[in-house]
Design a protein that fits this description.
Layout (H helix, E strand, L loop, with lengths): L3 H25 L12 H22 L33 H13 L6 H15 L5 H14 L8 H11 L27 E2 L8 H5 L1 H13 L6 E2 L11 E2 L6 E2 L1 E3 L2 E8 L5 H6 L1 H8 L4 E10 L4 E5 L6 E9 L4 E5 L2 E3 L7 E3 L5 E5 L5 E9 L5 H31 L15 H8 L11
Antiparallel strand pairs: 1-12, 2-6, 3-4, 5-8, 6-7, 7-14, 8-13, 9-12, 9-14, 10-11, 10-13
Helix pairs in contact: 1-2, 1-3, 1-5, 3-5, 4-5
Length: 442
């Protein structure tokens, strides 16, 4: 292990690189996104110059000596109670707060911080807090942020640009296409193609080869007394193009027909019973590289129209594997209208506006699953997956607490509490068992 002074110097160097990158971002903007914390250009320049001077001597003394070669510590889930994340980390009666203080000492080198650096970290931690990271996970995330600040880490450049935009109060960059304008999260540096050639994704070949087995597992669900399908509902806030659900809970994305789904994977939600009924399909999904952990059978009855809408982010691509009832089915993505052939995958970027129709005589069913965008590096996927899991688990805890409170200890609604139609996991839970039989499947 490198001496402590070397670790501090290395951390300080990459921190300075991140501050410098932030300064470039300030140069491009005429005003700061947080007026209350706005600094004049001269003031900011002065602070960064002084910060740079204090780091040059550390960097020069560091050159020529062996540097730590290990990657940032593995990121654990946001609700983890253990912390093997920081070398030399100790937990004591002060809890995780002490871990952060110790980490700050290591990162500072001399233990001192300029106001510019403090302001930077305040904004960075505010961004990370949006993902419900606990204090221990925050320590690990800060290690990764320091590495993002190293301009030689080209495999993290999209994360670096994303963080700089968030730090400056921008939740999304300008979309590459006007068809993506309604997507709430846009990461820069990713190719924006509404439709992608499926034959360029080698990971889809096993699904093509086993399409017959997947179809058999699907049709076996129809023959069962209960198929396990449930109506697809979305939170009220998810899109402006929606229809109020007949039962008043949540919203629907279609204004005609029925849209029912059979979940196989949804981030942190377990679907053991469903997966057990479709072993081949589940195995293929488990073996899928760079999976976004979201998969389901999607069924549209004849006459269904899915309203135009956007997916939640451009950092993934969506795959449709058509199985049955594809006659009369159409999917519009941007200005492209696609039709289907059984067993032939379709890959598209659902951050683009899209809608669907089914004018055929039989229920159309496709297997839907998502892949991380191919332009994201594996390390970027790792970090973004960590943030995603942490936020999802927080949402699930909120749903569980809300549901238990409703079932066992009914309480009056509190100001700011989630409405019954605002939490996706509550809608998911409440939609189970709504379909008493398979008569909807024609």
């Amino acid at each position: 292990m490198a001496p402590r002074r070397h670790v501090g110097a290395f951390a300080a160097l990459v921190t300075a690189a991140l501050v410098t990158a932030l300064y470039v971002q300030y140069r491009k903007k005429k005003k700061d996104a947080a007026p209350a914390a706005r600094m004049s250009r001269n003031e900011l320049t002065s602070r960064l110059v002084e910060l740079g001077k204090s780091r040059v001597s550390e960097r020069d003394s560091f050159q020529g000596e062996s540097s730590p070669t290990s990657q940032p510590p593995p990121l654990t889930s946001g609700d983890s109670s253990q912390s093997p994340l920081v070398p030399g980390h100790r937990r004591n009666s002060a809890g995780a707060g002490t871990a952060i203080a110790e980490e700050e000492e290591e990162g500072d080198g001399d233990g001192l911080r300029s106001s510019a650096e403090k302001e930077l970290w305040r904004r960075v931690e505010a961004v990370l807090a949006e993902y419900s990271l606990n204090k221990i996970a925050m320590v690990a995330a800060r290690k990764w942020v320091r590495e993002m600040g190293d301009p030689t880490k080209t495999e993290l450049r999209r994360l670096r640009d994303w963080l700089l935009a968030k730090v400056n109060g921008r939740d999304r960059v300008a979309p590459a296409s006007s068809w993506q304008s309604g997507c709430p999260e846009i990461l820069g540096g990713l190719r924006a193609n509404p439709v992608w050639p499926a034959d360029t994704f080698a990971c889809l070949q096993p699904f093509v080869e086993h399409a017959g087995e997947i179809t058999k597992e699907l049709l076996a669900l129809r023959e069962a007394q209960l198929s396990g399908f449930q109506p697809l509902k979305i939170p009220n806030w998810a899109t402006k193009h929606k229809v109020t659900s007949p039962d008043g809970a949540g919203s629907l994305s279609h204004d005609a027909g029925d849209w029912n789904v059979f979940y196989l994977a949804l981030h942190e939600v377990p679907f053991e019973a469903n997966c057990g009924r479709c072993p081949t399909t589940s195995r293929l999904l488990r073996d899928l590289p760079r999976s976004y952990q979201h998969a389901f059978f999607s069924a549209l009855t004849p006459g269904t129209h899915i309203l135009k809408h956007h997916g939640p982010t451009n950092k993934k691509l969506r795959v449709h594997l058509p199985l049955v009832g594809v006659e009369g089915a159409e999917l519009r993505v941007a200005d492209r209208v696609l039709t289907f052939q059984p067993g032939v995958p379709v890959v598209f970027d659902d951050s683009f506006e899209h809608e669907a129709w089914h004018r055929g005589p039989e229920t159309r069913v496709v297997l839907v699953f998502d892949l991380w965008h191919p332009d994201l590096s594996d390390r970027e996927v790792f970090f973004l997956s960590f943030l995603q899991r942490s936020r999802m688990r927080a949402d699930m805890r909120a749903e569980k607490a809300l549901r238990q409170g409703r079932e066992y200890e009914p309480q009056p609604a509190q100001p700011g509490a989630l409405d019954a139609g605002d939490n996706f996991y509550q809608l998911l839970h409440d939609s189970k068992g709504v379909l008493p039989d398979n008569k909807w499947w024609v």
